[in-house]
Write a structure and sequence with these properties.
Blueprint lengths: L15 H13 L3 H18 L9 H12 L15 H4 L19 H11 L5 H22 L5 H11 L16 H13 L7
Length: about 200
Amino acid sequence: MEYNTQLKKLALPEYGRNIQNMVDYCLTIPDRQERKRCANTIINIMGNLFPHLRDVNDFKHILWDHLAIMSDFKLDIDYPYEVIKKEDLGTKPGKIEYSRPDMTYRHYGKTLEKMAHLATTIEDPKEKEQFVLLVATHMKKSYIQWNKEVEDRKIFADLYELTNQKIDLRDSDIKLPEMKDLTQRNNNSGKNTGKKKK
């Protein structure tokens, strides 16, 4: 009895030993047309192994790339796609540069910081007050995603800094909603989408 550890190492183990054996057999077929028919059959079987990936863009192209890899790029057929080259297989992909926006506090996010700056430009006093409370409440929500608890005065101090000292609620007696109240309110609003009580 032969153990897998004694057999040839699989190029792509996710397809299994049987598919690799089919590919190895395909390499031995002398007739080019017959070899192409065999390759098409293998591709169909490979596709059936991962039916959930059929909607992925270039799924067939990926399968042909995999077939080329499993044959160690020795399968001499007319590929329907330009397959990956052996020398490109080991090359690392290019580095993706991620945008690193300047943020005073990362846990609030860039959008919330923009909202805080926007609050300073509102002229109508009532509208400004409501918007500031909305921003402060969202800041509290964002803060407790990273820390379990936070006092309102900490949020007001951060808001003061974010707005370049233009909005100062540090000495106010404003109380922001408790986060458990907000979660309960969100849960209740979700339940209201069902049947109405008679």
